[in-house]
Structures are given as C-alpha cells and as structure tokens.
C-alpha cells in the first residue's frame, strides 16, 4: 500500500459528502488494518486499475449511512433498505471518481470497476491486493464510518492486462473513453471543449428523468381516477411504479454527481479544505487489530 494515495481519497470523501448531503465528518488518524473485518454495517467496494492497482472500500455504521442518505434524498431512514444500499454504491462511485480525478491531475491514468455493496453485522472486506490496507476513520454526530484503501503503483504487465474485473471506464469528470488495446490509434482530431460530452450526458439524464417522472405520475393518476380498473392492469401499474421510483432516485443521484464534478475547479481538487483531527479513541482499538 502506497501512502501517497491517502490524501486524494481523504479529500474526495469530504468533498462528496459535503456536496451531496451537507455532511461534514471529522477524519481521524489513519492506521494499518491487517484483517478483513469491516468497520461498519454496510460497505461499498470498488476496484481500481491503470497506473495504480487495488481497491477502495467505504464502510458505514447503520445510523451514519441512514442519516447521510436521508439528507441526500430528503427522507427519513431508520434502517438499511434497498434505497440505502443503492446510495452506498453511488457514494462509493462518486468518492472514487473525485479521488481518481485528483490522481489524474498528477499525470496518472486510473480506471474503476462497477462498485459492489456488502452489508450485515461482522461482514468482511476482501481487497484485490493481498496486503494490509490503510484505514481512515471518520466520526460524526450520527456515528462513524471508515475509508479503507489498499492501492499501490501498478507494474507494466498490470497496466496492460485486463485483470481484476475492472472495466476500462475513465473518471466521470474526464469525459473521454480510451481506445481499446486492439484498436488502431485514431488520427488527431479537432480539439473539442472538455465539458461537451459531460453536458450531453447530463442533458440525456435529465431527459430520462423527465420521462420517468411523467410515466410514474400518469400511472399514479390513473390508479386514483379509476378505482374499478381492470385487475391485470392495476397489478401491472403497482409493479411498475416502485421500479420507476428506483430509477428516478438513481437518475437524481447521477445528475447531482455530474453537476458536482462539473462545478469543481482545479484549485478545489488540488487544495481541499480538510479539518485534521488525530485523536485516538480507545473504544475503537479493537477495530485496529
């Protein structure tokens, strides 16, 4: 594990949570974790490859993640459900994206996989690299969470390989898709504004959100206006409305993430405002062994 990767993930975590949920946790002193036990009740895990290889995990206590997701969606959550699990995956992806953007500012090319989510008491986190990871503990009035990073510089064979199941998908803020290894190198193209592709994607997501809202509202109105609707049609509507609700929430999260990344300046990425707090908490000592 290379310690140079701590700051991008530390500042990326603070940036995403503050922007998405107006949530300002206090980072503690990083420590080396030598086992696979997760620090929280639910964890998001994502693989990294390119010039750096490894994985990132973010593990939240139940009370902490319920408060964060409630702030994001404007709802109240008392326990972990499907909406909370979806949000953990989204947050993991966002934090990875912002952190990787900072690494790319240093000249690195870094890709990420699709995040996975694990939950349950005493669940474990298995990193791609079979080596100790560095954990950054965070405290908040609603409980702790932990950023668990196990990443190192990749060697040349690893940079060329497609191992670890990581999809060669660039950071969201980059807006460029690298050519495949087997594809011929394209001729130089006329330079386009950096924001063109993200803006196109943002408009597409907004269009999809509008369509999903329109479809859901139409079904809800028809159910309310036609109490004697055909049974088969009623069942179909009641099945599709929750699916549309899930799609709407995911699109809202994706739109907010894209807008957040577009608004971030190079100075904000290079010089994040981090409140340092290196206190030790005796009650957490068992997590460090």
Describe this structure in words.
- With 289 residues, the chain is of the alpha+beta class.
- It folds into two domains: 3-172, Chemotaxis protein chec; 196-262.
- 43% of the residues lie in helices and 16% in strands.
- The protein contains seven helices and eight strands.
- It has helices spanning 6-21, 62-73, 82-105, 156-160, 196-225, 231-263, 266-270; strands at residues 26-27, 31-33, 42-50, 52-60, 110-112, 116-119, 133-139, 145-153.
- Helix 1 (6-21) crosses helix 3.
- The radius of gyration is 21 Å and the shape is globular.
- The protein starts with 5 loop residues before the first helix and ends in a 19-residue tail after the last helix.
- 32% of the residues are buried.
- The model is unreliable at 161-198 and 283-287 (pLDDT under 50).
Key traits:
alpha+beta; Chemotaxis protein chec; eight-stranded antiparallel beta sheet; 8 strands; globular; disordered C terminus
The gist of it:
With 289 residues, this protein is of the alpha+beta class. It has 7 helices and 8 strands; from the N terminus they run αββββααββββαααα.
């Amino acid at each position: 594990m290379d310690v140079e990767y701590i700051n991008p993930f530390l500042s990326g975590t603070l940036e995403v949570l503050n922007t998405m949920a107006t949530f300002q946790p206090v980072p503690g002193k990083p420590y080396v974790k030598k086992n696979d036990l997760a620090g929280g009740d639910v964890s998001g895990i994502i693989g990294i490859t390119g010039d750096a290889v490894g994985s990132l995990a973010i593990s939240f206590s139940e009370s902490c993640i319920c408060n964060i997701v409630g702030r994001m969606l404007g709802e109240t959550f008392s326990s972990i459900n499907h909406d909370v699990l979806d949000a953990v995956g989204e947050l993991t992806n966002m934090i990875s994206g912002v952190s990787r953007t900072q690494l790319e500012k240093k000249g690195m090319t870094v890709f990420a996989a699709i995040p996975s989510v694990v939950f349950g008491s005493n669940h474990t986190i298995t990193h791609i690299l079979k080596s100790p990871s560095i954990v950054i503990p965070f405290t908040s009035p609603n409980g702790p969470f932990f950023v668990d990073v196990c990443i190192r510089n990749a060697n040349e064979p690893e940079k060329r390989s497609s191992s670890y199941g990581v999809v060669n998908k660039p950071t969201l803020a980059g807006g460029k898709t690298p050519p495949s290894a087997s594809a011929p190198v394209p001729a130089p193209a006329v330079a386009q504004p950096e924001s063109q592709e993200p803006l196109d994607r943002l408009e597409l997501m907004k269009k999809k959100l509008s369509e999903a809202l329109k479809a859901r509202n139409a079904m809800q109105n028809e159910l309310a206006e036609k109490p004697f609707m055909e049974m088969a049609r009623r069942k179909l509507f009641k099945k599709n409305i929750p699916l549309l609700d899930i799609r709407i929430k995911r699109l809202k999260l994706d739109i907010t993430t894209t807008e957040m990344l577009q608004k971030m300046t190079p100075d904000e990425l290079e010089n994040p405002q981090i409140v340092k707090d290196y206190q030790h908490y005796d009650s957490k000592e068992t997590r460090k062994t």
